[in-house]
Amino acid sequence: MDANIKKRLITLSIVYWVLLLYITAALVWWFISLYNQNAAMTDLKMSELRAGDPSYTIKAAAIQDGKKRKTAQYIGEGSIFFLLIIVGAVFVFRATRRQLILAQQQKNFMMAITHELKTPIAVTRLNLETLQKRKLDESQQQRLIGITLQEAERLNDLCNNILLTAQLESGANRTMKEYLELGTLAGDCVQDFRRRFASRQITFEAAEETAVFGEQLLMQLLVNNLIENALKYSPKDKPVNVSVTRHNNQVLLQVADEGIGVVDSEKEKIFDKFYRIGNEKTRTSKGTGLGLYLCKKIMAGHDGHINVSDNHPTGSVFTATFKLAGNH
Questions:
Q1: Residues 101 and 238 in one domain
Q2: Which residue of 47, 162, 196, 206 shows the fewest CB atoms closer than 10 Å?
Q3: What is the predicted pLDDT for the residue at 250?
Q4: What are phi and psi of 321, to 5 degrees?
Q5: Closest Cα to residue 326, out of 220, 215, 180, 184?
Q6: Is 115 left (phi over 0), alpha (psi -120 to 50) or beta?
């Protein structure tokens, strides 16, 4: 976390506790003041009674009963006020803290997105200038064109992630679901990645009859984000294994890598918007913190769920679970 954000959180915590203690002290003072006032009024009423009055006992009991009722009223009101103060203070503190953290995450996102945009643009421009100014043989031209197309595909994926995130959060996205063979769809995505990353080993296996009910574009984006995430956070000499299997009335899409893995404390956080694993080893990797967030949103929109578990001996396994088509 940024040092400035930490400083602001510490300041916020100090102010929060000072104000809470002040309000609590004021509430206690208010209770003591009313209690003493009630006791003084009771004593005054008791002093006005005549000892020889035949109804002395009844009147005294009524006065004492009134004192007890007032005391109970003050305790009840004080407890409710104190509870409301605590609930309000906690809500304000958590909301403010959340906004500060979100502001830092958005700042990190803008820095990351700037880098993610500039890199493929710079590579594409350099390659095109090279093709324009130099006479290259056929193999060199094809290599530069291939790299340029790969960078263009990266830009396309990035734009899709950003646009889809905005659409999903605004409710503007209108899904057109249909019956899809998830094994076939995932296989096509794997072939595309094999073409784009010829040096990487990506294995694939799929069971028969893995039909699901979903939107093709979103499903492709889900598979692409999971594969890209696995390639990004695993060594280049390690394979990425993609599989589509059936289990009872469910279809499981699994993407396994042999990278650094995800610690237990961050297995849920990695699906949050803008969140990136805090380990410095992963901070050097490219990313915007939107990929896995989108995967979670897509799965929620398809009545499924996604989770991450440990791969053995090292790495992670992301599992997206769908209902088998015909069981909706």
A1: no
A2: 47
A3: 92
A4: -110, 125
A5: 180
A6: alpha
Tell me how far apart the alpha carbons of residues 169 and 297 are, in angstroms, rounded to a whole number: 9
Gyration radius of the chain over CA positions: 32
Q: pLDDT tens-digit profile of 279-291? A: 434 445 555 667 8
Query: Which residues have CB under 8 Å from 104's CB, separation 6+?
Result: 1, 2, 5
CATH number assigned to the domain comprising residue 191: 3.30.565.10
For residue 186, the model assigns a pLDDT of: 94
Angle, nearest 10°, between helix axes 138-170 and 56-133? 160
* 227-263 residue pLDDT tens: 988 998 889 899 999 999 998 889 999 999 998 888 8
Q: How far apart are CA 95 and CA 89, in angstroms?
A: 10
Amino acid 317: pLDDT: 94
Number of domains in the chain: 2
195 and 101: one domain? no
Identify the domain boundary among 106, 132, 160: 106
Please, are residues 108 and 289 in contact by the beta-carbon 8 Å criterion?
yes
Of 204, 210, 203, 217, nearest to 183 by C-alpha is 210
Residue matched to tokens 């304000």: 92
Task: Give me the domain span that covers residue 289.
Answer: 178-323
**pLDDT(16) > 50:** yes
Residue type (1 letter), 63: I
Does residue 222 register a pLDDT over 80? yes
* Dihedral in degrees, nearest 10, Cα atoms 242, 246, 273, 12: -120
Please spell the DSSP secondary structure of 32-71, one letter per residue. Answer: HHHHHHHHHHHHHHHHTS-TT-TTHHHHHHHHHHHHHHHH
From the number of C-beta atoms within 10 Å of its C-beta (0-12, 13-18, 19+), residue 313 rates as: exposed
Last residue of a domain, one of 75, 106, 137: 106
The torsion defined by the Cα of 71, 73, 74 and 79, in degrees rounded to 10, comes to 120
